[in-house]
Structure prediction request, 198 residues.
Amino acid sequence: MTIKKDASSGAGGALQADLFGSVGPPGLAYAENIISEAEERTLIARICDARLTPFRFQRWEGKRLTRSFGWTYDFETNRFAPGDPIPGWIEPLRARAARFAGLETDALAQLLLIEYGVGAGIGWHRDRPVFDHVIGISLGARAVMRFRRRKGTRFERAEAALAPRSAYHLSGEARNAWEHSIAAMNEPRWSVTFRSLS
Ligand SMILES: O=C(O)CCC(=O)C(=O)O
Ligand SMILES: [Fe+2]
Prediction:
């Protein structure tokens, strides 16, 4: 069962089982209400102003809009390079994400903003190995992050419900051994992902 920790109950607060009774892999940490509804609205407005562009891979164009800061990974050329500086408006959230994951704020060297319009999702993948820890904050509609790991000829599967204003942290097995994906959304969702470098 996915264990979900409510940030408002403080560190070491009561653990409660996920309402969906879903199963998350080891290395997945999850906390709800890491930002207020007012902060969520402000962040969504900032992301909408941040000139995101459709994610492209060869001749395929994804329905989600993305923009990265700090470091960029070009999926066409496999090139990993310094990018635009992480904007100041995201700093308070970056500090909170770092605290949630038990990392130094400066360790979160990459920022990825994503807008999932209706019909947009993200296919099965593991994040590039140039990155280490992955911390994601969800805004807008609730989503389900699905996990799978090959076991012989079959897949072992798990999933975690991502509430708006929640954060997840992928490390260890959830980060390295499992793939994750998000099914196409019926309502818009935005995500803010911070990653440390390997
Ligand atoms: O939107 C999310 O929370 C997940 C994004 C993701 O998996 C990725 O960009 O690698
Ligand atoms: Fe990912």
Notes: The helical segments are 37-48, 91-101, 172-176. The longest strand covers residues 60-69.
